[in-house]
Amino acid sequence: METNFIETFAGDPWETEICTLSHAFAKREPLNYAVDGLFPLPCLGLVYGHPGTLKSLILADTAMHIAGGLQWLGKAVKKIPVLWVDLDNGKRRTHERFEALARGINLTEEASFYYTSMLPYNAGNSKDTDLLIKRMLSLGIKFLIIDNLGLISPGADENSDAMIAVMSNLRRVAEETGAAVVVVHHQRKSQSARAGETLRGHSSIESAVDLCLLVERDPDSNTINIKSTKSRDVEVYPFAAEFNYDHKEGTNELYRAWFDVVQVEDVSSDRAAELKIMDVVSERPLGNQKIIIEDANRALRVGKNRLRLILGSLVKKGKLKVREGARGAKLYVIE
To answer: Do 139 and 108 lie in a common domain?
Structure first.
């Protein structure tokens, strides 16, 4: 009977792919990042926002810095080959932008930066995906950017489960090449209580990715704000950048373009909430939960329910102690 089982399932991938805890405990190389704390290798990420938020430009600037091994907005990068797949801006604009961004950081032609423009790619098609993987492996690509998701899923309703196959193939690209795969996408017009729910399309899109970065920009401003709406790895704190550029003399064409880091006050991350709660308790020792939450909430954009959870977490971590007050009230103190 046992022999028949083996013969029946000869060549079954489950036989070689099932792991045990010996695999989990095996020594692994430390996790590497294309950009420190943002894009682990491998990963599948999305950068999204409304039209005009400069999301493609800021990501192109990221890619240039990675290809050159140059620090990006104060963040360390790993120098690795980059491939940009453009299906949105067209060849002339793509050439112009990359020329200007490269000139902005003095990146030369020798950099391992590759790009295509308007070369069709259907991420829902396994053959197309196999060809992309083959080309990436031949060039050693470890950072892939695709602009944009809607244009690599032709015929698929992005609000349906047809996107599952598209996202699955993109994940396969990341896993088989060891690359960070980052896709540009768009934001819904309607607002939602949770920022991640403004990501346009079927829920399988957000579910499939490791990192979502939302890019926001006020009208007529060259400053953009970036925040994470999903991260499976380390927490990503909000950051900002200012777009700068020069034109070619006598034209409206870009000559040089670059982004400068802008200091931003963090009022929405768990870290910001923890720091604020600790400040409140330090200033008002033996305060009760209501006092602490209300004081912290005035300075943050976190929400009282989340602040209560973070307050409890600080107690569990031993950063705060609880003493019993009148009528069983919980009073908080730093010891």
So the answer is: yes
